[in-house]
Amino acid sequence: xxxxxxxPSWAKISADGEWVEVDPEVMYPVFLNAMGFDHPSQHRLExxxxxMTTALKDFKSEGDLKIRILAGDKxxxxxxxxxxxxxxxxxxxxxxxxxxxxxxIPD
Length: 107
Description:
Elements: E1 3-4, E2 11-13, E3 20-22, H1 24-34, H2 42-59, E4 60-62, E5 67-69, H3 86-90, H4 92-101
Parallel strand pairs: 3-5
Antiparallel strand pairs: 1-4, 2-3
């Protein structure tokens, strides 16, 4: 079972205690904004997903991390957005590190 010192508002532990469930309706808008993206694209959504996964690893205190992004209304599916600029994805780690270094990881 995974344990957290503090769980972010966009995630919760599943009923069986085995998964961290992420609400895409909350997580994607929060991370898009925090990472400075003004609208979604496939590359930006993938950057947000990577940043979210890294954030959960940073919040975790012990145990194996298994993440389940809930279905939501399917509006956040990559196929529903333009491809966008590959540089948006390539910059995800630098953007995440800047958030972490300034204590602004979305919680």
